[in-house]
From TrEMBL:
Keywords: Electron transport, Iron, Iron-sulfur, Metal-binding, Transport. GO terms for molecular function: iron-sulfur cluster binding; metal ion binding. PANTHER family: FERREDOXIN. Coiled coil: none annotated. This is Ferredoxin. The keyword Translocase does not apply. The keyword Membrane does not apply.
Length: 76
């Protein structure tokens, strides 16, 4: 389970976030490219836009489920 006290600094405010346990595997960026990005030095992913449509929410939930280290959280 992601740790909402350890959120990556670049996350935009809102329910979805990545924490620093991210191992930079890129899976969330590939799954939900409208919402996740890698940071500049490619060391972790972050949420650059909260999902707005049902499709985006579905893909963010898929990324959350698939993240190999459970670094994605949803405080919604
Ligand atoms: S899927 Fe998880 S470990 Fe992989 S880049 Fe995204 S947050 Fe990081």
């Amino acid at each position: 389970m992601a740790d909402n006290t350890d959120k990556v600094a670049e996350n935009v405010p809102g329910p979805y976030y990545c924490d620093y346990s991210c191992i930079a595997c890129h899976l969330c960026v590939d799954t939900a490219p409208e919402n996740f990005k890698m940071n500049d030095d490619d060391s972790n992913a972050y949420v650059y836009k909260q999902p707005e449509t049902d499709e985006e929410i579905e893909l963010c939930e898929e990324a959350l489920d698939l993240c190999p280290v459970n670094a994605i959280g949803n405080d919604g």
